[in-house]
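@channel sequence for tomorrow's demo:
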Amino acid sequence: MGEVGTTKVYENEKIIVWEFTLEPGEETPLHEHKHDYIFYIQNGSKLQVFGEEGNDLGTLDATTGSVFAFKVENGYLVSTDEKNLRVPVTHTAKNVGTSSYKEILVETKNRI
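structure tokens (generated this afternoon):
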């Protein structure tokens, strides 16, 4: 199973910081989120999310400058902000937009 980011840039006993890049048409490996996390979109695009069996879970219009926050709850990622999102912890994402997608993701090893 893949990692939650492209490159791990820092880790200590409390957090893990990832850079994440996805080129147009590129799809992540199937991966599982085990920690609560937030991410900041440095360069936005459209991301289509798929469940573990390949089922389409919808498209996220991930705009530059947006911030998303999720907690792990009963096998799902549940947004802790006003976005009201809920997706399985195990999924893939595909860049279906026309520009490179880039984010900074920070996992917390303790609950948010």
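heads up for whoever presents: The chain has a mean pLDDT of 94.
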